[in-house]
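Q: Joint fold for the lines below.
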Amino acid sequence: SYVLTQPPSLSVAPGQTATIFCQGSNIGGKSVHWHQQRPGQAPVLVIFNDRDRPSGIPERFSGSNSGNTATLTISRVEVGDEADYFCQVWDFTTDHLLFGGGTKLTVL
Amino acid sequence: QVHLLQSGAVVMYPGASVEVSCKASGYHFSGFSVHWVRQAPGQGLEWMGWINPVSGVTKFAQKFQGRVAVSTDTSINTAYLHVNGLTSDDTAVYYCARDRNNFPDYWGQGTLVTVSA
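A: Joint structure:
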C-alpha cells in the first residue's frame, strides 16, 4: 500500500522559513494537499492540489510537488503557525484517502 | 459559510456501539461526499471512510470494514457514523469533513469518544 512519510518534528525561529517535506513513491504524479492542526483544534486545509491556497490562507503558505517529495513552505513564520501539519493524497488504486504521519512545527 | 456541527462527547462501555452525527450548513449537502477521520490521543489522522449522500455509495478503510457504517439524511443535511464493538483502541476524536475533489476542504469540530469500563 502507498505510504506517505513526514519528519516528526521541525523547529524554526519566528520570521524564518519552515520547509516541511512529504515523501512518497512518485508522489509528483499525485495531487497533494496539506492540513494544519493547531493544538486542541480541528484540522484546516491550507494547501490543495500541490500549490493552491484556500481563501483566507496567507500567501506565506506555499506548496510544491515533484519526483518523490512534496513540500509545504511557510515563509516569515509566526508563533500562530505552531501546529501539526499533515500531507494527504488520494490513492486511486484502493479509493482510499491517505495521510502522512504529520510534522509538529515548533516556533521557538 | 460552510459549517459542520458534530454531536457532543460521549463515554461508552467496551463492546457498545456509538453514533456520531455531523450536521452541515452553508452549502448544498447532497452535492458533496462526506469523509470520516479519527485521531487517537497523541496520534495522527486516520481515514475511516466516506459516503456519497445522493447515491449512498460508501467506501471504508480495510481495518474498519464490517464494524463501521456511515449514512446520511439529506432531508436534514446530516451525516452519521456508527461504530460497533467498541474497544479502548477506539478512544479518539472523530471528525467529519466535506469532500471537495478527493480531499477534505472543511472539517467538523470533532467528537471525543471515550471507551472505558
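Q: Anything notable?
A: Chain A is about 0% helix and 45% strand. Chain A touches chain B at residues 31, 33, 35, 37, 42-45, 48, 54, 84, 86, 88, 90, 95-102 (CB under 8 Å).
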